[in-house]
Write a structure and sequence with these properties.
Blueprint lengths: L1 E6 L6 H10 L4 E5 L8 E6 L20 H10 L4 E4 L1 H8 L6 E3 L7 E9 L15 E8 L3 E3 L2 H9 L3 E6 L18 E5 L5 E4 L17 H4 L8
Parallel strand pairs: 1-2, 1-3, 3-4, 4-11
Antiparallel strand pairs: 5-8, 6-7, 6-9, 9-10, 10-11
């Protein structure tokens, strides 16, 4: 049983994800999108990058690849699915989760470390953390501002679908701590079920000890039991 990391033209974080999962002892392989998901797929990562050069909208073209129908079917069968950065954009564009990611409020590409507050600790992606715990994880995006209609955001909040929010190091949610202007400081959201999530920050870049931080390990450990 293996986690499939779906590679599109322009993906550039697929190897990062593969190496991070290998460090955690989780079997994973990079899968070219045209080849579809292998039969033994036990988890799916939609990785970061610039699929198809982000033409039209970030993630819009990759979201229309036939493999996304397979990803949605896998999600419906209970297989964990995680979209990271460009993969989060693909996830939203394909309907795996609500909302959309659009141009940063600064109108600039931003590559920096940010703090995230864990909003729920009872999901596969956050079971390794405590509710309210603050993580330090890097971002690297130009279209990371989460947008969703106000009434839909209220429903997502009521249903507990907001997974992470940008915050200060002490956990306070402030405008200054929001790197891209995301509505409600949303950094990650859940799909209709807890085993589907998208997030703009890169947990795979905060997993290997030799890069100096490991706060992202807990997110990827959601795939641990899936490959047994």
């Amino acid at each position: 049983m293996t986690v499939s990391i779906v590679r599109f033209g322009g993906s550039n974080c697929d190897r990062d994800a593969e190496r991070a999962l290998a460090h955690l002892g989780i079997d994973a392989e990079i899968v070219w999108h045209e080849d579809g998901l292998p039969a033994d797929t036990s988890g799916v990562i939609l990785p970061g990058g610039f699929s198809y050069g982000d033409y039209l909208r970030a993630g819009a073209m990759a979201a229309r690849s036939p493999v996304l129908a397979e990803v949605r079917e896998a999600a419906n069968e209970g297989i964990p699915v995680l979209g990271i950065c460009n993969g989060a954009q693909v996830g939203c564009e394909s309907g795996l989760t609500e909302g959309a990611f659009t141009t940063n409020e600064s109108a600039r590409f931003q590559c920096e470390h940010v703090h995230l507050r864990v909003e729920r600790a009872d999901t596969p992606w956050t079971a390794a953390y405590e509710e309210g715990e603050v993580l330090r994880i890097p971002i690297a995006h130009g279209e990371g501002r989460y947008e969703v209609a106000d009434e839909r955001l209220a429903e997502l909040r009521e249903a507990g679908r907001v997974l992470f929010r940008y915050c200060e190091a002490d956990g306070r949610v402030t405008a200054d701590a929001n790197p891209n202007g995301s509505k409600h400081a949303v950094a990650g959201v859940l799909g209709a079920d807890d085993h589907v999530a998208v997030m703009m920050p890169h947990p795979e870049r905060a997993t290997l000890p030799d890069v100096g931080q490991t706060d992202g390990q807990g997110v990827l450990r959601a795939f641990d039991g899936a490959t047994e």
